[in-house]
Design goal:
With 258 residues, this protein is of the alpha+beta class. It folds into two domains: 113 residues, no CATH class; 138 residues, no CATH class. 15% of the residues lie in helices and 26% in strands. The protein has five helices and 16 strands. A hairpin with a 3-residue loop joins strand 7 and strand 8. The longest helix has 14 residues. The radius of gyration is 20 Å and the shape is globular. The two termini are 19 Å apart. The model has no long low-confidence stretch (mean pLDDT 89).
Length: 258
């Protein structure tokens, strides 16, 4: 690591200059219908922030075959909010729908049958429905999503399950309002945040480093998700000509663990 806190990644990891090149290198053939479950288990795109992950997921969904269905949430403020005694909604619905937070589904959930999803809540661990479980969307029904489990215990892999809408409240106390969101507790799983990927291992990783990592060990976590460095493709900032990127390391904590 140099004096600027940067390291140089191997040149063969560079994938191109835009998001489409990252998608193509990580998900070749994503436009082909009925890809096997293993196709999605073997690959993922990682990024540092939820905003970038959501944009990448949306871009891949546009390439994914099938008819898109948009499911809107029902948002409100929590009953213990100071405005709870009013008989009207004190915040515009457009404002509530625009709020995003870690672990919270999007207000505007765009889906297509066959797309991969990630569960955001522990619904029924005894049946394999845990936070982080990956699913394939089979069918969109009026009140539930019919999905097929593709990760976790072998007892549950391939099992069809029904995912209901839930009322969810974010744990982030820094949000401007105490939001209550009634939505399906899932997100698209073509891409995920680096932090969410901890503990997972896949064969092909696309890494979006247009925005540098921002916490200790985050770059290591991202690069170590793949079983081979030859199958990691990295998207650097468009104007960057080399493969240097920030690596955040708090040296003061290392003596205590070595």
């Amino acid at each position: 690591m140099d004096n600027d806190g940067k390291i140089s990644l191997p040149e063969n990891m560079r994938c191109g200059a835009d998001v489409d090149s990252l998608i193509q290198s990580t998900y070749p053939g994503v436009h082909i219908p009925n890809q096997p479950d293993q196709y999605y288990l073997d690959r993922t795109i990682l990024s540092g922030t939820n905003d970038d992950v959501d944009k990448i997921n949306a871009a891949i969904l546009q390439k994914f075959p099938g008819e898109e269905t948009v499911l809107m949430s029902a948002d409100s403020v929590s009953h213990d909010d100071e405005a709870s005694h009013l008989n009207f909604q004190p915040y515009p619905m457009e404002f509530l729908n625009s709020i995003t937070a870690s672990g919270l589904p999007l207000a505007k959930l765009a889906l297509k049958p066959g797309c991969p999803l990630m569960l955001l809540r522990n619904l029924d661990p005894s049946k394999g429905l845990c936070n982080g479980t990956r699913l394939i969307l089979v069918n969109i029904r009026p009140c539930v999503l019919e999905c097929r489990i593709i990760t976790g215990d072998e007892r549950f892999s391939g099992k069809h399950v029904l995912i209901p809408r839930l009322v969810l409240e974010p744990s982030n106390d820094l949000l401007p309002v105490k939001l209550r969101r009634r939505q399906f507790p899932v997100r698209l799983a073509f891409a995920m945040t680096i932090n969410k990927s901890q503990g997972q291992s896949v064969k092909n990783v696309g890494l979006d480093l247009r925005s540098s990592v921002f916490s200790h060990g985050q770059l290591y976590v991202a690069l170590s998700r793949c079983t081979s460095g030859n199958r990691i493709k990295v998207l650097f900032p468009e104007t960057q000509n080399d493969t240097r990127t920030h690596n955040v390391v708090y040296n003061e904590i290392l003596p205590g663990v070595l």
